[in-house]
Give the backbone structure.
Amino acid sequence: MIFEKLENVNESDLANLLADFQQIMKKESFSKKEMLHKEGTICNHLFLIEKGIARSFYHKDGKDITAHFAIENGTITAIDSFIQRKRSRYNIELLEDSEIISISHQDMHKLLQEKPSYEKYIRLFLEQIYIDLAERIEDLLFHSAKERYEKLVKNTPNLLRRVHLKHIASFIGITQETLSRIRTQT
Amino acid sequence: MIFEKLENVNESDLANLLADFQQIMKKESFSKKEMLHKEGTICNHLFLIEKGIARSFYHKDGKDITAHFAIENGTITAIDSFIQRKRSRYNIELLEDSEIISISHQDMHKLLQEKPSYEKYIRLFLEQIYIDLAERIEDLLFHSAKERYEKLVKNTPNLLRRVHLKHIASFIGITQETLSRIRTQT
DNA sequence: AAATGCATTTGACAATTGTCAAATAATGAA
DNA sequence: TTCATTATTTGACAATTGTCAAATGCATTT
């Protein structure tokens, strides 16, 4: 799940971590279109998608822009707000009926204070998402809209089948019309 | 310096941290055009710029693309390589004669193992650079080349005066010619 | 100061993507 | 099934940015 990609870690330490995290995880069912977080408020939770799809989005010049998708086993939050404890410009909504596990900021930080050795895993998590973001920047800078779309088709075909094209379009930084034309070409 | 932006931290803990980090920092002078890191190798150092300018760049279709600049008080490294311990596609070169402080990956991790409480500061550092990166993505997605340039002029006029325009151009994802035209318009 | 090598600008034109409006297609509710 | 709503595609055209080649400007070395 959240720590699944980690390598080179102490097995027993990780087992403890997972057990402790279990304690602060809350599982809940939500239905499609429900909001996990609303813009203008501070985001107090990190969400893990057990089943379903969520997307974070914000408004730019009246347009709805998707910033991130999370499907099964993925995580989502209004990360800047969660980190900096300030109001968020992001919304998080569910695109399907979902099973969500949430971890509150408060609980997580309490746990980190009690067991500072867990800081390491948060660091590893951050390193991972940092690298993912860096890759996204390169993608935007050096691949055409068409290449970005094709990469998505290749890497996350499952996602493509499950979300509206307008969200895919804004996610890769193009208009819906351009995406439509890209798709019909080929 | 590296931890200067941190808020809400324990003062004495931070003082200890700084003292310990001092121990593993090595200061060196380099002259313009020297390389702090070369692509194809694993990057073993985090560099702090005490004086001067460095840029990281890589090659894409034969073109030289600037990924990041660091001036006085900034940090630079081939972050993906430094984190994942794999060979880097990035180079780091100096654009002026510089005074550089370097911290080796090994020393840093040894320090973190000895004093796991410092993990927290690394996490805070990562949070900060993650947010900076996220901002850059928004910038690329929703601002025109002209807006991106003007933002740079506003935020880091000092940088603009000190580096070649071709580097600025690739940094904001446009060609040198387009940047030139943007500049002469206004 | 002249010569050389870069850096920057300019021109002409092409490719990519965006905008706005309208037409179809698909979906979900009654 | 039918209707209403929403999603997707298409068309015509405009704006932005890229490409390639050449000209100009600037700075460093001799």
User: Anything to note?
Assistant: The two ends of chain B are 36 Å apart (CA to CA). Chain B has a mean pLDDT of 91. Residues 144-146, 174-175, 177-178, 181 of chain B lie near DNA strand D (CB under 10 Å from a C1'). Chain B touches chain A through 26 residues (CB under 8 Å).
